[in-house]
Structure formats: C-alpha cells, structure tokens
Design a protein that fits this description.
This protein has 243 residues and is an alpha/beta fold. The chain has two domains: 18-114, Potassium Channel Kv1.1, Chain A (2-Layer Sandwich); 131-241, no CATH class. Helices cover 38% and strands 16% of the residues. It has helices spanning 38-41, 48-52, 76-85, 93-103, 106-113, 116-129, 135-148, 166-178, 198-210; strands spanning 24-29, 32-37, 67-69, 155-162, 187-189, 215-220, 235-241. The relative contact order is 0.10.
Length: 243
C-alpha cells in the first residue's frame, strides 16, 4: 500500500533544498532524540551546526527519517538550551565545551571559556604545562615503562625525577648517578619558568595519567643510606595498580 506524501517520514523528503522542509525538525544525536525548529538550529549562521541545515541536505537520516548526528547525545540538550534561551550550561562544562567546539558555536565557546573550569584548564594549567619541556611525551613514556613492567604483576612503578630550576639540574644529575637503578627508566620533568611548584606538577602528572584510565598514586622515592643528596628532593615513585 502506498503512503501519501504528507505521512512520509521526514528523512524520506530530504531530496531537495532544506528550505522546503517543515520548520519542525526531529534529530537523532548519538541515539538521543530531540525535536526543535530549523530557526533554532540556524540561530548562529557561521556555525557548523547551522551549515548542517542550510542549503542542500548534509546529514543522513535514521530508519525513522530523523536527521542523524554522530555525536554524544547526552550533551546536545545543553547546546539546544543555549540556542533556545542563551542559557549557558553550569553542568558537564568540559564535555559541553567539546561539543560547542565541534558545532563551532562561537558565542557559546567564548562564554564557556570564561567559566572557572575551562579558564582554569586552558589559561592556568595548560599554560603552565606548556612551559614544562616534553611534558606530554614524558607522560606517554611513563605509561610505556609501567606497561612493560606489568607482566604477571599487580603493580608496576616508574621513578620520576623532577627539577624545578636550572640550578637543580646538576644536583639531580649527581643524585641520578648515585642511584642504583637503570637510569634509562627514570623519567625527568623540568626545569620550568612558571610559578607552580613541584607538588603542583606532580598533581598534574597524576591527573593526566588518570585521565587516560590508569589507577596511579605517587610518593617520594627514598634512597638507601649514604646517598649524597636527599633523593626525595628530586625523585618520586609513581605506582600503577592494574587489578
């Protein structure tokens, strides 16, 4: 039996310009269903979201004819609420920020970047870490060492050397030469020119390793008696727990 055009699912009609569509739009965003209007979606003409619904169809439809966007649907409600009422979300800020960047909604991006959470991450913490040489590479090196030592073990450890200033570099090297261990397995951070302390950097290391899904803790690494330099001035043991 044929279906009249007025009862066809929305997705079956997207063969021409989107200007011919009903002003009411049904969306499937990562499995979450939303109903809104074209004018809401196109509120910011320069955004990627507006471009999705301008001119020729750029989106696929699901089996029910709803426009499908392959993004996390949970956070789209905050994007939609902002488009409807200019209400800046106060929950899930980091995740909503990622979605605002994807949809390229510039006013929302700027307002989120003024929030304490995003401002603190982008302007304070990230700017500090950018001044720590090879920070990201060292995080990956720590993980590789820990994984290599995890065979048939519940835990594995990585020794980290942290030097705050140029003056500490020579002292750290002297201490490193006295350590009874494979020096290639010691991951060195620093020096850096910024206000945060060694404890701040250690917290950052833990945060960023945990953000990758690992369970980790750290403590000062104390060498045996007779060590020429106090090892806990520079050396810390990061413990990875696997199960």
């Amino acid at each position: 039996m044929s279906i009249s055009s007025e009862h066809k699912p929305l997705g079956k009609q997207v063969t021409g310009s989107l200007h011919t569509l009903s002003p009411i739009v049904e969306l499937n965003v990562g499995g979450e269903l939303y109903t809104t209007t074209l004018s809401t979606l196109k509120k910011h003409p320069g955004s990627k979201l507006a471009e999705m619904f301008t001119g020729q169809p750029k989106l696929r439809t699901d089996s029910e004819g709803r426009f499908f966007i392959d993004r996390p649907g949970t956070y789209f409600k905050y994007i939609l609420e902002y488009l409807r009422s200019n209400q800046v979300p106060t929950q899930c800020i980091q995740d909503v920020y990622k979605e605002a960047l994807f949809y390229d909604i510039e006013p929302l991006i700027k307002q989120l970047e003024d929030s304490p959470q995003i401002f603190g991450e982008l302007v304070a913490r990230k700017q500090f870490l950018a001044r720590v040489p090879n920070y990201s590479e060292n995080i990956e090196l720590m993980i590789r060492i820990a994984r290599a030592e995890a065979v048939a073990s519940r835990r594995s450890s990585v020794i980290v050397c942290v030097v705050r200033t140029e003056e500490d570099v020579a002292r750290c090297q002297d201490a490193l030469n006295s350590l009874d261990m494979d020096k290639k397995s010691v991951v060195k951070f620093g020096p850096w020119k910024a206000a945060p302390s060694i404890s701040d950097l250690l917290d950052c290391i833990q945060m960023d390793v945990e953000a990758k899904g690992y369970k980790i803790s750290f403590q000062p690494h104390v060498a045996e008696k007779g060590f020429r330099v106090k090892s806990h001035d520079f050396f810390y043991k990061f413990l990875f727990t696997w199960w």
